[in-house]
Specification:
Chain B: It comes from Saccoglossus kowalevskii. The structure holds 2 protein chains of 2 kinds. By secondary structure, chain A is α+β, with helices and mostly antiparallel strands. Chain A folds into 3 domains: 71 residues, Uridine Diphospho-n-acetylenolpyruvylglucosamine Reductase, domain 3 (2-Layer Sandwich); 112 residues, Alpha-Beta Plaits (2-Layer Sandwich), CATH 3.30.70; 94 residues, Alpha-Beta Plaits, CATH 3.30.70. In chain B, helix 4 crosses helix 5. In chain B, strand 7 and strand 8 form a beta hairpin. Chain B has one domain: Rossmann fold (3-Layer(aba) Sandwich), CATH 3.40.50.620. Chain B is 29% helix and 27% strand. A 9-stranded mixed sheet of chain B has the order 9-8-7-10-6-1-4-5-11, sandwiched between helices. In chain B, strands 2-3 form a two-stranded antiparallel ribbon. The chains are: A alpha+beta, B alpha/beta. Chains A and B meet through helix 7, strand 7 and helix 8 of A and helix 6 of B.
């Protein structure tokens, strides 16, 4: 599957398609808008619409399947999917690196794109607090010493020797330039799993703090981590922790704030500040998690009024009685 | 102190997370193109040796491996974890299939003598053959004491106090050096090799030897007749009541 995400143990493929799930390999395989070839869906009036083509190219009329990918079930219910699957890679390597600043994380990404290019399959980051809770709550081991930022780089390819050579050149370079202060490499399946779990278990670790306020935003690279720092300053002692981690390679930050119990005053200081911040930098207030019920009334922070109106018109056309996943995604007029 | 020369045996085995498949000729398992890594118990052995060096008890750590050319990758990992140098006893693929702990322990014994080792640490068993014999045979060939299934190793007045995991619990023994220790799971948690060390490891010396150099006879003593998958687990049967359970047990002759 050209898609992999932290929820892999419990999510369903139909749901992945309906929510245009992103995940950790979007960097390499693109979004579901590109890899889904066809869809069968059920419309509000019960019509079963068959767009289940498995053709790679088909420019005959409007590309209706796109309506159902990412619309969160509000335009139709996905019942069948045809998806383009890449070859399973023969050789996978994972490097876990320590950086002393976020600028270094970005510089390392630039190096990774330049030197690993076609074999790069994931580029994720987590900050110091994320590692702290992994160790504290989940008894995980930090393979490196304490650093402000950690980066996970994954390569996937068809030739082990070729990929290892590229990876070694990349690692030597980033160590020499000082963009990376320390790191470790895993080629064994078991070690690769351990390193990935450092990134994928953060959401679980956060829950141990109590209440988690989760935000999933897309931001331009230069402002990427600034929002975490600004949020830390803003909430001060009202929050237990403010962390940032995520798909830095896609410009997608998971900003999470925790407190022992749910606090309306803390929430009020976070929202709408966080959405205004993102809107100011022309980012997305929901990179991959969608709008659902929680964020539908903030859609205007990332979409123009004319766009929102067209969405409302489409919803009215396809689901006049409002029975498909009502009260979600697109605000009613 | 920092006076001990420690030898550590490392075996390259199929990675424990791999789903192993039986070869079509039913004489072994598929190894071609399958992910291999260092035997987990040997990683623990290397880690223990590196910790002894960090405590300034060991002066030099030599990692050794017997097998085909790819064993060098395993040795590089050992060097990256902190071994000072490596010895690769190269054995051709076909010949390697026919040998086991008997021949390997002879090779390791010769190396221990040649290298003037004070301590030899190996993993308690390899996860591919589960033999749990090499450490014991090695001690026998060297006429050294052995402390197997070690979960803790402490230096005390020049001897080693080793806590062993045994069926009844834990047993503590004192062994004089030179001796053989086999590492068990709870001895330590192996470190990740960090990049600077991985780079340094490329420059550390790796010596190549042949079994003939060590005077070891490679005639196979064991012949594998057949390798089979375990029988597929059959579905159980759900019963509606205790009476039904009793009658089914009677049918099968259990009661």
């Amino acid at each position: 599957m050209p898609l992999d995400l932290g929820a892999k143990g419990s999510c369903h493929i139909g749901g992945n398609v309906s929510t245009n799930a992103g995940g950790i390999r979007l960097l390499r395989y693109g979004s579901l808008h590109g890899s889904v070839l066809g869809v069968e869906a059920v419309l509000a009036d019960g019509t079963v619409i068959d767009c289940l083509s498995s053709l790679r190219k088909d420019n005959t009329g409007y590309d209706l399947k796109q309506l159902f990918i990412g619309s969160e079930g509000t335009l139709g219910m996905v019942t069948k999917v045809s998806i383009l699957c890449p070859r399973r890679p023969k050789s996978v390597n994972v490097a876990f690196l320590g950086c002393s600043s976020f600028d270094d994380v970005l510089a390392t990404f630039k190096d990774a794109k330049g030197m690993l290019e076609e074999v790069l399959s994931a580029y994720e980051f987590l900050d110091h607090e994320c590692m702290k809770i992994n160790v504290k709550y989940l008894n995980m081991t930090n393979p490196l010493s304490d650093y402000p930022f950690y980066v996970l780089v994954e390569t996937s390819g068809s030739n082990a020797a070729h990929d290892e050579e590229k990876l070694n050149t990349f690692l030597e370079t980033v160590m020499e330039t000082g963009h990376v202060v320390d790191g470790t490499v895993a080629t064994d399946i078991s070690k690769i799993k351990n390193i990935w779990s450092l990134r994928e278990s953060i959401a679980e670790a956060l829950m141990h703090d109590g209440t988690v306020y989760k935000y999933d935003v897309t931001l331009p690279q230069d402002q990427f981590y600034e929002i975490v720092e600004d949020m830390r300053d803003r909430v001060g002692d009202a929050a237990t922790r403010v962390v940032g981690y995520g798909h830095v390679g896609d410009g997608n930050l998971h900003l999470n704030i925790t407190s022992p119990t749910h606090s309306p005053t803390l929430l009020a200081s976070i929202e709408p500040f966080v959405y205004e911040w993102v809107a100011k930098h022309s980012g997305s207030i929901s990179a991959e998690h969608g709008l659902g019920f929680k964020k539908k009334n903030y859609i205007q922070y990332s979409k123009s009024n004319s766009a929102i109106k067209l969405m409302q018109d489409m919803k009215k056309l396809m689901d006049p009685k409002g029975i498909l996943n009502p009260y979600k995604t697109v605000p009613s007029r | 102190m920092a006076s001990l020369r420690v030898l550590v045996g490392c075996k390259r085995v199929i990675d424990y997370a791999v789903k192993v498949r039986v070869r079509p000729d039913k004489l072994g398992v598929v190894t071609d193109g399958v992910k291999h890594s260092m035997n987990p118990f040997d990683e623990i052995a290397i880690e223990e040796a590196v910790r002894l060096k960090e405590k300034k008890i060991a002066k030099e750590i030599v990692a050794v491996s017997c097998g085909p050319a790819k064993c060098q990758e395993t040795l590089r990992t050992a060097l990256a974890m902190g071994a000072d140098r490596a010895i690769h006893v190269e054995i051709a693929e076909k010949e390697y299939e026919g040998i086991g702990p008997l021949q390997v322990s002879k090779m390791l014994a010769k190396l221990a003598k040649d290298e003037d080792a004070n301590l030899f640490i190996v993993g308690k068993q390899a996860i591919d053959d589960d033999c749990n014999q090499t450490g014991q045979m090695l001690a026998s060939y060297l006429d050294w004491p052995q402390a197997t299934f070690a979960s803790e190793v402490v230096v005390e007045d020049g001897d080693l106090k080793v806590t062993r995991e045994v069926d009844g619990g834990l047993e503590t023994v004192k062994v004089k050096m030179p001796c053989v220790i086999t590492a068990d799971l709870r001895l330590n948690e192996p470190r990740y090799a960090t990049l600077p060390n991985i780079m340094k490891a490329k420059k550390k010396p790796m010596l190549k030897k042949k079994p003939a150099d060590l005077g070891v006879d490679m005639t196979p003593h064991v012949e594998v007749l057949k390798v089979d998958d375990p029988p597929t687990r059959e579905a159980g049967v759900k019963v509606e009541s205790a009476e039904e359970l009793v009658s089914k047990l009677k049918d099968v002759g259990c009661i």
